What does this fold into?
Amino acid sequence: MLFVRTSVLCALAALLLAACGERTDAPQPTRVTADEAAEGAALLGLEEPGRASWEERSFSGGIYRFTGFSLVLDEAGELVITADAMEIAAPRLEDGIVRFDRLVLENGTLPSEDGAEARFERLVIDRPGPELSRSVAASFTVEEAALPDLAGNLDAYSFRELSLTGFSLSGGEFDGVMQAGAIILEQLDADGLESARIEGLRMESHGDEPLELAIEQARIDGAGARFIAALVAGEAANPLNLAVSANPADFYRALRLDGLAGTASGLAFAMETFRVDVSDVREGTRTRIHMPELTLSAQRNSDAGAQIEGALAFLGYEDVVLSLESDSIYDPASDTARTQNTNRFIWRDGLTLDFRQEISGVAAYGEAVAAAQAAGKTGDAVMEGLDRHLLLHSFEMRLEDQSLLERSFTAYGAMLGMNPAQARLQASALVTLGLSAAPREVPRSFLNAIAMPLSEFVRDGGSLVLTLDPPAPVPMNTLTSPSGDFDIDRLGLSVRVERAN
It folds into this structure.
C-alpha cells in the first residue's frame, strides 16, 4: 500500500533520529517522451480516474501534476490518501517495473487501519531504487507484490531523499499526538545511509502512563549498511557486547541529539546535548561520547512527581544531574577494542563510575552475527553462542562514592533512630548476610571474593575496584567454567577498596 509499505523507511527516520541539509548534487532528470510517460501513468492508474481521482491534471516537461488528488488504498475503500497536489516526474516502464524520478505530495492526509491519521505538508520520494519504485506502484494498484527483504537489499530500496515536513499523527490506538517539523533521510544505497535528521519533534501521550517529549534536533551521519540492516530486520545481538566491543565503523560516523526535554511517570528530564563522534586515527577507529549534563527531577503538579520529589528529598537532592564521557579505540590490525583516556559516568554529588576494558575478536563477532542474520538464525541461544568470538583481555570497574553513601545512611539512620556511623555498621553487616542468601545460581566463589570488600566499602566509603586480568584471553561465553563454577584464577578476579590518603 502506498506509504504503508514505505512507512518502514519513515519509521527508520524516527528510530535513527537523524538529518541533512540542502542538496546541490541533483542528478539530471530522466528524459521521457509523452508516450513513455503516458504508459507509465496508465500502469499506475493515473490515465483515467479510478482508485486515484483528481480535480485537474496537467503534463509538462516530463512531470504529471494532479490537484485535488485522492487514492484509495484498500479494496473496501476505507483507507484513502488525500492531497492538495501530487507530482510524479518521468513515470516510465523500465525492465518490467514502473519507475519514476520523484514523487511529491503536498498538504496530505494518510489514514491507518487502527483509525489514526497522519497529516503532512510535504512528502518527497526522490530517485527511488527499483524495489522502492515497485512498492509505490503496487500501492497505486493495490497489488500484493512479492518484494524482496529490505534488510538484505538496501541498494534495491535506495533513494536520494525520503522526507516528510510538517508532519503530525493523532487518533487511533495512539492516545495522543506526535509532531515533527521535518523528518529527512538522504542517500540510501548498498553502503548505507548518508544522513538523516528529525527537527522539532514533539510527542504527547495521554494514556495510563502520560508522556511528554520534545527534541529540538537529532541527527545521524554515515549510518553503515550492517547497522541499518540489523535495525530494519529487528534483530539484535547482545546489547552489552555491542556497547563494549562492536566496531563503530560498522554503525555510524556521527550522532547528535540536542534540546531533549520531557516528562514520564512523574519524572522530568532535560538534556542540552548528546554527541557521538567516530573518526579515523593512526591507531584505528576512535569513538568519543560526550554528554555534559542530563538532569532528572520531579514532575510538578502530579502525584507520581510528588513521590519522586519525596524520594529525592529523602537523600537530600532537589534533582539528579548525570554526565558521561567515553573515549575508545578499535584497532583493525589486532581486531581489538579498548578504552583509552576516559570512560566515566558521573552522578553529581552521588558517585563516579569508571570502566576500562580490552576485548578482541570484534570483527569476527560482527561477521558471525551478520552471517547468522542472513541465514535467518537469530534466536537468543544462537546469538548468545556467538559470544565465543569475543575474547576478554582485561576489565576494570571503579565505583567511587561522592556522598551518596553518606546521604543514604543519614536518611536510613534517621528512620531507625541512629546516627549515620551506626547505620553504616549495621548495613555493612547486612551486606555479608544478604550475599550469603543469594540464589544458588550465583557462584559462591564470586560471592566470597566480593563480600569483604563490599562490606568494607559500605562501612568506610572510598572506591570499590573490581578487576578481571586473566592470564590468557577468555571467551565471553565461557566466563564461567563448564561446571558452572566461577574460576577466579582463570579470570584473574580481584576486588578491593581504595581510599584517598
